[in-house]
């Protein structure tokens, strides 16, 4: 009986939160993250579950930005160090678990059909278009997975990453060194 009451209370709280979310004026479009020295925006529809840092099992003969594979909630995911992949620079050494306290693994949405998680250094939160004062279209020479860049009120530059386009790039899918 106690379990039923707890379930009813949970369902009631959940329904209230969903209703509040529908009626609020907050509209988030992106998940804002930091990786290395850069700030990125992931479209919410392309981002999947967010996991705490789990040390991946290394895989030999792979690109330096591919850290290995990790078991995340029973699924096997390839782990990519976003800062290293995006800049093309050598991967920073993987720090110990205590220094990775703010690091997260952001899985790509399962609709993209790529079991991959991106290692980011810090979650910043949700952002909508109203959080930025200017935007700039991607340059012709930029990779096709880069979207618009945005500037916030403090002058910070945020780069949108189209995770769907990223998940289809041959360079991203070819992890062999």
Architecture overview:
- With 177 residues, the protein is α+β, with helices and mostly antiparallel strands.
- It has four helices and eleven strands; from the N terminus they run αβββββαββββββαα.
- The chain starts with a helix and ends with a helix.
Summary of the model, kept short:
With 177 residues, the protein is of the alpha+beta class.
Q: What characteristics describe this protein?
A:
single chain; alpha+beta; 177 residues; six-stranded mixed β-sheet; 20% helix
Radius of gyration: 18 Å
Shape: globular
Number of strands: 11
Low-confidence stretches: none
Mean pLDDT: 86
Strand portion: 35-45%
Helical content band: 10-25%
* Biggest sheet architecture: 6 strands, mixed
